[in-house]
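re: that chain from earlier
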Amino acid sequence: MRKYSIVIVTYQMRETLRNTLEALNYMEGFGRDEFEVIVSDDGSMDGTQEYVQGINRNYEMKYIFTERSQLSCRNRARNLGIKEAGGEIIICMDGDVLANKNLLSEFDRCYSMDSNIVVAGARIMLERNVEYEAVHDQSIFMKHRFDGSNNESLDDRYRKYNVLSYNSNAMRHPWLMAHTNIVSIPKAYINKVGLFSEEIKGWGFDESELMYRLFKAGVKFIINHKIEVLHQPHNEMRDTPENVKVIEFTNNISLFFKKYPDALNQLPENLTDYFMNDQMLELLTPAHAILRRIELNLKQTEELLEIKQVIIKCLNEEGLELVVYDYIESTDLDIYIQLLGETRSVIKYFPMSKKLTYSTVLDGGEK
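^ sequence. v structure.
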């Protein structure tokens, strides 16, 4: 049985999908029999299947095509892909992102420590179309990397993490940080709680219903700051107009909170504005009375054991904020802290390579 199944949903995106699939030929540490790719085509009419034929040189690929109908939606396409998946872990990935060669090894780093987790990555947004050759020779990943001074290039989750921490336990509602552009879910838990909701159609908030059910089932959510994908711009024919996005997002979010009115501690008056205008920081920020603060700096591998001992000693101190700054980022400390679960003390973790430096950022975890 393969360990990983990468499920990619696509519609009218043959150029970006070709790049996405090409990037997956370069996964380090994983052979052809260890992962598979399932492309679930939601009715493309641009010759996608023929266009990407044979692109999978180093992995097995299944291509599922479903005719367009009133039932068509991204969640239906995801579900059809998941049903075909033979892996223990489902990695949901959009057909417009480029995965670096460390993708599977970073997911595996997490699952080697705990198999009952959802792992979320993040995106770096590209402004220009990507040439196939830049993916083929991997130069795209040298040219585009995390840049803490460039607000426009960063997924909005980076700004939240910069304030709240890269420890999912240091925020409320961590399920809101798990997006299907790049996220992994154990298939056993999908079998337990069910597939994506096909009632929720259109743009925005479509994956959140399943993430909430997983959260309620007790699955831990892990943020892996080393899992970063490059998001390719869409062609104009494929893009959903902004006014349509607002309508679809409003419908999706209304359906969700009608079904789960207690999902948030307190419902904002205008849910659509709240989520679409990136006002979520207030929702995610826990209400803790901080009485004292301790800072820990990991600058050498030899300091890891001592820092872990301090963390364990301080776990149950009410009113303590323990802030860990990781300058080396070569250990398991980032995942270790999150696997501790909820603690009485507030443990914040900040990888220093992800420090934001542009002037408009809210300063929370920066040092």
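The longest strand covers residues 220-231.
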